[in-house]
UniProtKB/TrEMBL annotation:
GO terms for cellular component: cytoplasm. Residues 4-239 form the NAD-dependent epimerase/dehydratase domain. It comes from Stenotrophomonas terrae. Keywords: Cytoplasm, Decarboxylase, Lyase, NAD. GO terms for biological process: D-xylose metabolic process; UDP-D-xylose biosynthetic process. SUPFAM superfamilies: NAD(P)-binding Rossmann-fold domains (SSF51735). Its cofactor is NAD(+). This is NAD-dependent dehydratase. The keyword Ion transport does not apply. GO terms for molecular function: NAD+ binding; UDP-glucuronate decarboxylase activity.
Amino acid sequence: MQRVLVTGGAGFLGSHLCDRLIQQGHEVLCVDNYFTGSKRNIAHLLGKPEFELLRHDITFPLYVEVERIFNLACPASPVHYQYDPVQTTKTSVHGAINMLGLAKRLNARILQASTSEVYGDPEVHPQAEGYWGRVNPIGLRSCYDEGKRCAETLFFDYHRQHALDIKVVRIFNTYGPRMHPNDGRVVSNFIVQALRGEDITIFGDGTQTRSFCYVDDLIEAMLRMMDTEAGFTGPINIGNPDEFTMLELAETVLRLVGGRSRLVYRPLPSDDPRQRQPDIRLATEKLDWIPSIAVEDGLKETIGYFRRLLAEDAA
Ligand code: NAD
Ligand code: UDP
Ligand code: UDP
């Protein structure tokens, strides 16, 4: 049993991580400022003695006592991270400095939720960890991409300079229950649009690709990474290599939901990556992990979640 801090614990991935840590018998301190997260995501944990919730913004120092830190706090969808881009960079950079300072004082192991966005709009396909990426430093996505890149730099410098025990995971597009219905990410958008019978918004011509991982698979890999031997820092890709176009995703969602939504085309946002697929050979080797949930099965679970959520909100 360990005392574990999860920053961003009221968010989509963070709340699933809190669930799994509690199931494993750990004590969890969930820290969140509720920018994109919600108490609803962790309401079922609130009565448990092993679970504690703290409203706090990690751009400010945090003095608590824990043995392990999962640093997930950061808005993740383009709509949300571009809403207040300066705060997004502060969350990644000042937030990382504070959490690393905390880890240093406590001599605690710390894991950073980094992202495939560090590869930018890649000219290497699929993306392996050795690829340095192609990121625009001054575009609309830069607050997120460069913030996350700088956070990785800080993690590796604290490791080299202060011998901190770090782990860095690069997460590729992940979906599942508890995604924010209005956060603008493609999976939640398409499902909510299909359930409401609204038009499905394809950005650009829909031929750009992504590879989507179901949340349970992702959390399993993250937990395994945290338990790897000291000295193995990553960065390590985690994601599902099953790649498809946004048009194919729209068609699959429409088929699973039914209904009569039409596809409509909207301008492609700037710097939108053309293609993305994780090379997960390192994760397979080091974590003995491959994703096990097929996209159709994961989408069915996610559709069921949004169906219930929309019905509750309508009631
Ligand atoms: P999310 O928006 O649901 O969760 C982020 C959480 O962080 C929210 O609860 C939010 O309120 C909280 N937060 C934001 N700024 C904060 C601050 N300054 N202080 C305290 N809390 C703050 O997003 P998510 O999908 O759960 O993403 C979690 C992490 O995983 C993020 O760091 C994200 O960059 C990373 N990630 C996610 C994906 C994905 O596909 N979901 C892909 C790559 C990386
Ligand atoms: N910090 C924190 N909690 C702690 C210890 C440090 O939030 O328990 C913050 C503190 O605000 C500091 C930052 O982490 O600015 C970096 O800490 P570090 O010890 O690396 O640097 P220093 O304190 O020397 O600036
Ligand atoms: N996208 C889309 N329609 C939407 C939302 C997104 O076609 O309603 C596209 C978006 O342009 C991108 C892909 O879907 O090419 C994935 O977008 P998301 O925001 O989910 O993730 P990211 O771009 O950060 O990988």
